[in-house]
Amino acid sequence: MSNLALKYRPIHLDEIIGQDELLGREGVLRKLIESEKLGHTFLFGPPGCGKTSLARLIATRLDRPFYEMNATSLKIEDLRKIFKTYGNALQKPLIFIDEVHRLSKNQQEVLLPFMENNSALIIGASTENPYYSLTAAMRSRSHLFELNAIDPKALSNYLKKVSSAEQIEIDKDAFSYLVFSSGGDARAMLNLLESACAVKTPVTIETLKQIRPHAMQAGSSESESHYELTSAMIKSIRGSDIDAALYYLARLIEGGEPAEFIARRLAILASEDIGNANPPALNLASSTLNIVKHIGYPEARITLSQLVIYLASSPKSNSAYMAINSALHAIKEGENYPIPPHIKTHAKDYAYPHDFGGWVEQSYLSRPLKFYRTQQIGFEKTLFEWHKKIKSIKK
What are the pLDDT digits (tens) for 258-270? Predict the structure, then answer.
């Protein structure tokens, strides 16, 4: 059996799955490609969502010479050779750079003049949002598009197509496991299928789990179960029920949920539901997320258990969550007021609080606004007393 991921790599835009918003009939990226108006573009999204395939399709569609590079090994002299080769050519090349967020400032500076002169069409790809790693000059000369992890329905249809064409028998449970355990990564799904076929056919879930014991990304034996179990764990912690939280944690672990995914959800809860009622909760969640990245299962179950017990036992407050939501809502509703002149940069009439014993009465807003309402739960009560004491300081 030939490499399935390569054999079934899409060769037409319609064959790219799971990106209808960008590449459907009314998708903005599709329209730019088909009208041959696509400028320098950076794509980002999870592994196996079609970034490289899309770049190759664009090169074919535009009938351009295609060069594929990786930012981690890209040499500036190689770039200059390509640009020199096509200096006087009518058809300019398409240069695809993977891991584009790793481009050094020097590499970006070399690319800039050629991007400016359209000496080549630059397309970059990354599993991370490259926005902050690219210089302002690079960003101003390009567009950024996010590709999504392929949804289970699209993956299922894709798997049916491949298995039918290859005449591969797959048990019902194995079919489901191939889809959910691949976490939206079509390449990973086909690679697992290919390995399982090398062991025995029909493909069974037992064979698959011997090769991939745990899901690669967020997932469980049923997509609905994954969301329900995660929700149940979060709600149990929010409700301070330690045993229920541990039960759902165990269900998620046994269902093949990645330790890193669970830790990310718990880190969100530490801010959203505990916040300043117990600030160390966020520190412990951050440490847990870092630890499970490095140790993995089975030891990661202990670290996750420790965090779940701590979070469920902590006092709860959503004051910080409600405060930022309230502030964002105000901005969206048009409450955009000018900054008072006395707190602008280099303002001469700014009253420096440290010159007044730590606090001085002065306005920081053009008009009064109120977003934060403390619940005075746990450490929040201490913060409230601190804040009240600060403002009681006389000039």
Answer: 889 899 999 999 9
Phi, psi of 366 (to 5 degrees): -70, -30
CA separation for the pair 168, 164 (Å, rounded):
6
Alpha-carbon dihedral angle through residues 83, 88, 92, 94, given to the nearest 10 degrees: -10
Residues 262, 254: Cα–Cα separation, whole Å:
12
Tokens of 39: 């400028």
Q: Which long-range contacts (C-beta less than 8 Å, at least 24 apart) are formed by 72-81? A: 72/99, 72/102, 74/103, 74/107, 76/106, 76/107, 76/110, 79/107, 79/110, 79/111, 79/114, 80/110
| Residue 242 scores a pLDDT above 90 | yes
CB 30 within 8 A of CB 23: yes
pLDDT (tens digit, 9 = 90+) per residue, 101-118?
A: 889 988 999 899 989 988
- Cβ atoms within 10 Å, residue 12: 9
Among the listed residues 263, 181, 174, the one whose alpha carbon sits nearest the alpha carbon of residue 214: 181
Extract the tokens encoding 166: 């290859």
Closest listed residue to residue 286, CA positions, set 300, 307, 259: 307
What the block records as the tokens of 31 is: 């329209």
CA angle 80/84/87 to nearest 5° reads 135
Return the higher-pLDDT residue of 253 and 287: 287
Angle, to 10 degrees, between the axis of helix 259-269 and the axis of helix 242-254?
Answer: 150
Q: Token digits for 268?
A: 């969100």
The β-bridge relationship of strands 66-70 and 94-98 is parallel
Tell me the Cα Rg of the chain: 27
Cα(280)–Cα(65) distance, integer angstroms: 55
Q: In terms of DSSP H, where are the helices of 117-258? A: 136-140, 152-166, 172-180, 186-199, 205-211, 223-238, 242-254
